[in-house]
Amino acid sequence: xxxxxxxxxxxxxxNGCEYFGNPQWQGYCSKCHREQMIRQRxxxxxxxxxxxxxxxxxxxxxxxxxxxxxxxxxxxEKRLRQSETLKLKLSSxxxxxxxxxxxxxxTEKRSQEFKIxxxxxxxxxxxxxxxxxxxxxxxxxxxxxxxxxxxxxxxxCANIMTVDELSERVQRQYQRFMKHxxxxxxxxxxxxxxxxxxxxxxxxxxxxxxxxxxxxxxxPSGTEDERLDRAMSERIQQLAWVGERHLDCKLDRADPxxxxxxxxxxxxxxxxxxxxxxxxxxxxxxxxxxxxxxLCGAPASADDLLPAxxxxxxxxxxxxxVSNVNYVTRFSNAQRLMTxxxxxxFTNLCCALSFIENLTAESLSMDKKEFDCYxxxxxxxxxxxxxxxxx
Length: 391
Ligand SMILES: [Zn+2]
Known about the structure:
The protein has 391 residues and is an all-alpha fold. Among the domains are: 118-212, Serum Albumin, Chain A, Domain 1 (Orthogonal Bundle); 225-382, Up-down Bundle (Glutathione S-transferase Yfyf (Class Pi), Chain A, domain 2), CATH 1.20.1050.80. The protein is 66% helix and 0% strand. It has helices at residues 30-46, 50-53, 56-69, 74-94, 104-113, 118-131, 137-158, 163-183, 192-212, 225-238, 244-247, 256-271, 278-295, 302-316, 321-331, 334-338, 340-358, 368-376, 379-382. It is globular, with a radius of gyration of 23 Å. The two termini are 30 Å apart. Bound molecules: zinc ion. Zinc ion binds at residues 13, 15, 17, 19, 28-29, 31-32.
């Protein structure tokens, strides 16, 4: 049963390591989750399971057939076709190879012709000068060259890899850049904190560009992200009747200060969708949670954060929430998610989502009949001013 009261230790990886776990990673931290997945894949390969070895295209096709079978709306089909078309356009530009044929040379040529727009590289140069005015030209050059190869690598792999494989690949890119900084002469005078900031810089610029490409890293094709976004949004609308008393949080809505903090927290959470990089989205989550902590009154305990955050999520009903959380989980530098303030708040947000998905009458300490009665109500009746905007 999902519970409102969580212990600090419940936030940690279920493998018993010191990192934060995450429902998205089946309760493991990113590191243990990846190791778990590798073991699983090996086992599947060893047992000769066909689904595990199907090429991605086949998998996608059967995913799609399943989807269509299971009562999909017309709208959904249309959305799917649209994103397939976009994806098709993209793949005709970046296509690597599928069945080697006489087209391969011309596609090869086209992928060589593909260039990251100059404006992107120029923007990066300016941002570097502003953020790292004391670092050498060589560091600047290395960082930009790395972002360039990072982007090209993801584009090349996106069509032939599952999203989990792509996520692992991106994580290895971050590690590769860290190793480069630790071994290259160019970085010998750069301290550890600045190296961290350089990793963030690389992440920001590579992922911001990739985020703009349809269905590559954000709601990637072949995933359920878009369907889950709609399911989550509908679920939140259905729960619009849930108030602070059900969640047992100490909010005083008559207090203008309190209302202002709630409004700020909601704005930050809504802003998560418009930030392009994982770091930018995490910054929104962090600012949101700081307001939520202030909302609980000082000194706020960890116990108070989760119920108040759930309340904030329910009132905000943020657009594309599942896609945003999955994007951060997959493509943010995993080190940052497993520790520190941002990792802690993000883990709480994931717990809030998991609570909302699974909550029952019991988890709200409510009478079952009363709960069912509320849930049977059309969402518009129980709706608050914040919902009903995205449909
Ligand atoms: Zn772990």
